[in-house]
Amino acid sequence: MSEFDYDLFVIGGGSGGVRAARVAAATGAKVALAESSRMGGTCVIRGCVPKKLMVFASSYREGFSDARAYGWDVQDGEFHWDKFQGQLHKELDRLEGVYRKLLDSSGVEIFDARATLADAHTVDVGGETKTAKHILVATGGRPVRPDLPNAHLGIVSDDIFHLDALPKSLLIVGGGYIACEFACIMAGLGVEVTQFYRGAQILRGFDDEARGLIAEMMREQGIDLHTGTNIVDMRPADGDARSESDAEMGADVQQMEALQTDVDGDVEGGPLWVKSTNGREGVFDQVLFATGRAPNTDDMGLEEVGVQIGRRGEIVVDEYSQTAVPSIYAIGDVTNRVNLTPVAIREGMAFVETVFKGNPTPVDHELIPSAIFTQPEYGSVGLTEEEARDQEEIEVYCTSFRPMQTAFAGKPGRVLMKLVVSKESRKVLGCHIVAPNAGEMIQLAGIAVKMGATKEDFDRTVAVHPTMSEEIVTMRDPIRAG
Ligand code: NDP
Question: Shortest CA distance to 336 belongs to which of 296, 289, 394?
Fold first, then answer.
C-alpha cells in the first residue's frame, strides 16, 4: 500500500491539468484533480473557445456585403446578442461536460473545490486533507486591471461572455492579443470601438511589417485606434457614488473586482467618463481592460512550502516543469513561459513522461506557431525580421496584395506573406502571414519551419492555384537583405 492517498494530485482543471491527469491515470497511477471554478479552465470557458465562436459570429457582417457583390440578393441582418449568447453558453456547458466525462472515464477523482498546499506532499481541498506522492499545479492565470483609480468599473475579458447586452460604444485599453482580437470582434458585431495603446504600435514583440498591416486593417474596419495613448482617469459618467472616493476611502476594491469578474454573475455597467494621456475626454458605455494577465499563485501556500515565485508572480520551474520542491511540479500559464493552451498541454504530457514513464522529457519551447484572431488573422512562427536581423545576415521575402475573393467585392483589404531567411544556412527563420484564415495556414507552414526547411525547399514546392498562400512558395527575389 502506498503511503500517500494518491500518486498525483493536480490543482487546476484547465487544458494542461486535465490532460496531465488523464495521461497519468492511463499509466495506472491513482490521480485526483481539484478545480474551484468550471472544468475546462480559461481556454474552454472564458478564453480561446468562446472567443473563437465570437470571431465566427462577428465575421458574418462582412459576409452580407460580400455576398451582394457576388450576385446574391441579401439584406444586412441584425445581430441578436441574447440569441448568440444562449447558444454560446449551451456549447460551453457541453464542452465542460465532455471534460468531466473524460476525467471520470480515466478514473480521475474530481474535487469541485479550491486546493491549497499544506506541505510538499499534502493539499487542503474543500476542508479535507489529502496526500500525494506528486503534486502538479496548473492553476493558470487571470486578467489584471491597471493600477488606476476606479479601474474596477471597467470589465476584463472574462466578463465579455456574460454581458447583458452589447455596449453601443466600447473603449479597449491595451495592444496585445486580447485587446486586438476583441477590438475586431466587437467592431464586427456593430459596436463602436475605440482602442488606446500606450506604445508606438500594437502587438509588441511581433513582426513590425505585420503589425503595421494589422493596425491599418483594423482602422479600415472602423476601429478608432490611438497609439501612444493611455487612460489616466475614469469615473461613472453620471457621477455615480461608486467612484474615486470609494477607492480612496479604502472600499474593498478587490471584492468589487471579484464581483465584476464572477464568471456566473451578470456584469454591471453604465456609461463611463474617461480621460486619456493626451488630455482628451470621452464617454463610453463600457471600458475593457486587456492589459495583461497574472499567474494564479496567490494564497495557495506555495512559498510557505518552499516553491519559488518569480517577479511576475509565476512559479519558477526547470526544463522538466519541476519546482524548487522536488515533489511539486507546475505547468501552463501559472509558470508564465509561453502562455498558450497547446503549450500547457505539451508541458503536461512531458511531465507525465518524466515522472510516470521514467523518460525525462524537457519541453521544447522553440519555433511555436501561433495565431492572433484579428480580422484578418495573423499567423506566425519563428523569428521576426527584427529579431533575425539582430542575430545574423538575412534575406526578407515579402508580398502584400489584395486577395481575389474580397478584391472582387471591391474591398480594400490586403494580405501579407513574409519569409525571413538566413543568408548563410538558407533556413527559413520566420514565417509571417496576415490573411483570412492565417491561423490555419501557419499551422502547416509551421511544420516546414520546425523541420528546418530552407527557402529552396519552399521554392521546390509547387503552388496550389489560385490561393493566397501560394505566394509563400512563389516569392523569387528578396525585397531586403542585410
Ligand atoms: P499581452 O501581454 O499580450 O498584452 C497586454 C497589453 O496591455 C500590452 O499591449 C501592454 O502594453 C498593455 N498594458 C499592460 N499594462 C498596461 C497598463 N498598465 N496600462 C496600459 N496598457 C497596459 O496580454 P493579453 O492579456 O492580451 O494576453 C495574455 C496572453 O494570453 C498572451 O500573451 C497570449 O500568450 C495569450 N493569448 C493568446 C491568444 C491566442 O493565441 N490567439 C489569444 C489571447 C491570449 P505593452 O506592449 O506596452 O507592454
Answer: 296
